[in-house]
Amino acid sequence: MPTDDAKRALADLWGELQSRWDEPGMHDAVLELARQSTLLPELAARYRAVKDDEAAPEARRAFANKRLGAIALVAMHSLDSARTAPRQGLPRWVTVTVAVVSALVSLWAIKQVMRP
After folding, report:
1. Residue 89 lies in a domain
2. What is the Cα–Cα distance from 22 to 27, expressed in whole angstroms?
């Protein structure tokens, strides 16, 4: 969960980015901050606003669109690295249920065989 400090840091860095838009390092710094503080959706919304801004220069809008792609890639990588391996074998409750049912059937069979 992103903290208020992380949100403020992103807002401050975004404000600085607006005046230094042509510096790729600034964009990378904002992306890294958003990745570390789990604020990728917030950053994507900011780039989306630039992309959709009809008054913005076309070059800025096109670059914002490219950054949206980079954000999507980082998000997919984060999800992929957080993935856990699927469980191997049956769930424990299935094993216990089969064992109990088998024991009950065995007891019933023994009772039927031992009946006079």
Report:
1. no
2. 9
Q: 66-89 pLDDT, tens per residue?
A: 999 999 999 999 888 888 888 788
Whether 88 is covered by a domain: the verdict is no
Q: How much is the pTM?
A: 0.69
Please tell me the total count of domains within the chain. Answer: 1
Q: Is residue 68 part of a domain?
A: yes
Select from 85, 83, 48 the least CA-distant residue to 68. Answer: 48
Please, what is the average pLDDT of the chain?
A: 92
Rounded to 5°, the CA angle 106-110-114 comes to 175
CA dist 27 and 21 (Å) reads: 8
Give the integer Cα–Cα distance in Å for 45 and 10: 12
Provide the pLDDT confidence category of residue 116 given band limits of 50, 70 and 90: confident
Q: Which of 2, 11, 22 is nearest to 45 (CA)?
A: 11
Domain extent at residue 63? 4-82
In a domain, 97, yes or no: no
Q: Tell me, what's the pLDDT at 33?
A: 94
